[in-house]
Amino acid sequence: RLKPPRVSGCLLCTDKTMFPKILFTLALLAMPIAHACVITPHNIAGIQLGQTLAQVKHAHPQAKINSEADAEVGDITLITLPNNIEIFALLDDDTSQITWLETLSPACHTANGIHPRMTLHDAEKTLGNVRDIEMSEVEMRQFARFAQQPKWLNIRVYGSDFGNIPSAHFRLPLHTQKYRHDARIISLFIAQ
Known about the structure:
The protein is an alpha+beta fold. The N and C termini lie far apart (69 Å). Strand 7 (74-81) and strand 8 form a beta hairpin. The protein contains three helices and 15 strands.
């Protein structure tokens, strides 16, 4: 029986497979990319609370940084990283340091897998039951709090069920524990 010839540059060669070194190397390099956008108490995708935009640009030269005025919060900065990972930042007016970071990118996740676009039902499997969903006075945004949610993590959601409230009794903020079957996490954010 003839054996296939040994191929130069082959890392793993058997009678049935050949796995060239270049493919193995590319596979190893691609692995960290999938885990590049981790959310921790102090950073999102390596962008730290307390950094200036100059420090972000130095640490992430490939980042695109755009600022625009927002009527409610002043200037908000969009930091776009490779793979269309978008992170919004607010800066302290006096120090120019980042005080708040938010992402809507589903590629970004906490260590336990919580990420934007995740259903609230799936998030409950990790964070415990929804304890409260608040509809705020600011643009009627909805924020969820789960039984085992870390204090540093803030979760903006949509799809809450506040029931039918007569307009005469409609006062914000509203609170509920109910949500629709399609309710999802819109964004995750951290702040100092």
